[in-house]
Amino acid sequence: MKSLGLNPEDVLDFSVCTNPFPLPPGVRKALTTATINRYPDSETTELRQALSAKLGVPQENILAGSGTTELIRLIALTYFSPGDTVLIPEPTYSEYEVACHIVGAKVLRQGARAEDNLTLNLEDIATLIRQHHPKGIFICNPNNPTGQYFSRHEIETILDAAADCLLILDEAYIAFVDETWASLELVQRGNAIILRSMTKDYALTGLRLGYLVASQEIVGHLHRVCPPWNVNIGAQKAGIAALGQPGYLEQCQRKIREAKQFLVRELHSLGFTLVPSQANFFLVRVKRATEFRAELLQHGIMVRDCTSFGLPEHIRIAPRTLPDCRKFIATIRSLKENGELKGLI
Of 77, 154, 162, 254, which has the highest C-beta tally within 10 A? Predict the structure, then answer.
């Protein structure tokens, strides 16, 4: 951005799918109490106690990490070996494949089709499981970047087919789905891991904080491989403080929903085609995503070029505050009326 003469602080970033609102009350104060000249609690005891109270699951079923990406790699390191097959439906978060490659596991892909609005068919995935008997399967729910949210029946269909398979259900964006089901109950089956992100929920991006919920046996195996002190003291303190503000997330969810509805309505009115999404973010079809992103960046707005997801004709947008969203739409409308997006949409 500096090469374009832009100050990163002045760019409106619609490319990241995180909570765009200020930190929960009390987080900054909590950070000032962090004793940074001592090692953090390697067991993240207080944080897991707070999560246990919020989620209604024993703290022994919870493992905290430096963001969900660390936990994804930890799972791969613990459970997958060279030559193992891991199923990854696509398009989805690229870190699943990266984690598999780190440990030498083979990736079995199952792709969504453009004619199906990039909707993944879990019946087809279940068929692949029965045919190939993978060691594990990653399901992002809601899926990144499509925003597709799978029902309990669909996920249970996968688990029924995957009795000898580890299901990693990545719910990093679950806080931004309006109607959800009780996925944590799946850990009772013994072969499911639920991943969640406090980084995205509570605007803690720079601190990195996530957790997983699984059977005590799985958590025990992962804990033995987990690096000591993997969650820094600042992240632990911030997480505990954030969980102590029960109304914060609900307030942010309402504002994000309002901003998303505004963006969807206005982009439709401008003639754009959107992929239906149940998450906070959504895909917009354009002709050349890389060039579209570059054009908007010249005007101080960043969107996600989805070429890296294998979708060179789509960008991904996540809502910011409503005033920022109004600036975004005003910029798009002006560029379109002036012909500056000709050939890109």
Answer: 162
How far is the CA of 288 from the CAs of 140, 273, 295, 316, 343, in angstroms?
26, 14, 11, 13, 8
Q: How far apart are CA 11 and CA 274, in angstroms?
A: 24
Residue 7, number of CB atoms within 10 A of its CB:
9
Both tokens of 279, joined, read 């998450």
Distance between CA 40 and CA 265 in Å, rounded?
A: 47
Model pTM greater than 0.90? yes
What's the CA gap between 93 and 115, in Å, rounded? 21
- Domains annotated for the chain, with CATH where assigned, are 2-21+247-337 (3.90.1150.10), 27-244 (3.40.640.10)
Cα–Cα distance list, 74 to 12, 56, 280, 287 (Å): 33, 24, 27, 38
Beta bridge partners of 137: 87, 167
| Cα dihedral 210→215→216→218 (10° resolution) | -70
